[in-house]
Amino acid sequence: xxxxxxxxxxxxxxxxxxxxxxxxxxxxxxxxxxxxxxxxxxxxxxxxxxxxxxxxxxxxxxxxxxxxxxxxxxxxxxxxxxxxxxxxxxxxxxxxxxxxxxxxxxxxxxxxxxxxxxxxxxxxxxxxxxxxxxxxxxxxxxxxxxxxxxxxxxxxxxxxxxxxxxxxxxxxxxxxxxxxxxxxxxxxxxxxxxxxxxxxxxxxxxxxxxxxxxxxxxxxxxxxxxxxxxxxxxxxxxxxxxxxxxxxxxxxxxxxxxxxxxxxxxxxxxxxxxxxxxxxxxxxxxxxxxxxxxxxxxxxxxxxxxxxxxxxxxxxxxxxxxxxx
Length: 325
Prior knowledge:
The protein is of the alpha/beta class. The chain has one domain (66-317): Alpha/Beta hydrolase fold, catalytic domain (Rossmann fold). The protein has helices at residues 3-40, 95-104, 135-156, 169-182, 221-224, 273-279, 304-317; strands at residues 66-71, 110-114, 161-167, 193-199, 210-212, 229-230, 233-234, 250-253. Helix 2 runs parallel beside helix 7 (304-317) and helix 3 packs across helix 4 (169-182). The longest helix is centred in the N-terminal third of the chain and has 38 residues, at 3-40.
């Protein structure tokens, strides 16, 4: 056998080994990516809640007239927080709404329940991992916890009215639940919902609700980046059907240049790349998102949280008083 033949066979053998090694590494990489997605979590499909009980003529004296459900934003809650005295984050924005309501109304008139949930948003590319729950997992946990109090309260107190409010990730959760209620497949009947108040909603659609404050040209980040899916973060786009029957009872507050609720429409469309990139300069560290307690929404100097607390108080004051037995 000539040296040339041996050399050719050697090169062929090395090439096969290289191809096999590359294929093995590709399989390992795909397995790691699949595991990454699996561990990061996906958003569950909504499950229509069973119909509530037939409404009696009266309900237990232990039932509140109004059940207020407050959903805090990212890093403003924990699964073990006290729903009636939240302390997980003393600076939680929604405390500026829930506490005034607790001070104004006795629990028999308005039971103010702050949903305890993980409220995290992990950086999917952090290395080493940041130890946080993914947005998908956190959002699913918040949705389950909020639905739980609504379902339980309605089962116990079928004449009690409801008011939903939330901030940031909590606004997405409260808004998604309101959307399901408005479509007729939510945890409580739509006619028992007094109102829905959302601050910095990541799925804000300007045409879906009444907008309070300065005009905002953008949309929620989940509409802006609709279709984007990376491990643990699914941008779900607009809510199908908006808020349905609750559209005229839903209010949204979004400060201009808050990248969570005032993002450029269809940012991923090639024709919008330049305009979207220019808007990124407004979002550096997104300072506006943390300033709703001082963001003024009307000519009287009313801040976003003051407005939301007063709006909720007016809804509660005007709510029906069910007979008690």
